[in-house]
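Question (not urgent): is this output format expected?
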Amino acid sequence: MNKPDFQDGAEHWSERLLADGYCVIPNLVPKTVAALDHDLALDFESAPFCSGGFYGARTKRFGRLLTRSCHARTLVQHPLVTAIVERVLAPWCDTIQLNLTQAIELHAGALPQLPHRDQDMWRGAIGEIEYLVNVMWPFTPYTRENGATLVWPESHGLRALAPSVESSEVAIEMEPGSALLFLGSTLHGAGGNESAAARRGAIVSYCLGWLKPYENQWLAYPPEVAARFPADLAALVGYRQHRPNLGNYEGQCPSILLRGEPCGPLQAMDALRPDQEALVEAFVADQLRSARYAMPHVSRAV
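Got this back:
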């Protein structure tokens, strides 16, 4: 996809996502998904079944996909997907961050999941802000029979405040390599698996850079691991500040840890938005002009 088409594509799919609460982009990375599924085969085999009614007793889940396969980076940093996410979340944050990477295997007999909205993990205002964008990547075909993700169209945004949902659920049937994007305010849930085979996939989600992410990224990818990532990927998993000064390490961007442990004390440095910088500069200049805060005169002995 050339650059003009890419930009047009990001705008088109962003509009669809914001209008309907979800969208399906077909045939994005079929070969990458097959390779990732292959790399995770032993992880799926060894992972225990989940505990609890929400995760599902017939479901296997595990995270930290960026440490398990190099192919996970292609999903996490897919240029069209990240462009859509940035367009959707930009009104409410300075930078986005990775919220979660999780592989999911829904086994035969798995019950439907409780319909829910992922934004409810944070206790912020509802209907005013979009907190995250989820991306479901199927490794096997998703069908209604094997538990394809259920989505309630147009259940997002202000409609999340309504006591009931007007639309009926839609089972998002799709092939490996396609991607289902849906908002954190969109009602959704895994379907029940009435087939004889497991359905596998992964969910990658992104949230506002000032939120606490679902998966603790600094534990999933400590500095010695993140130091091997490209700089933009390390930033996405949390090794950058979100202005003003959020997520700093000793007053500096945490990316400093990717160069090894600092040799000495670090100088705390402002990391402000332009409007805050202007406000601070004007305030400091005013104080310096004030006699009360004027620098004391130092006389020199002759």
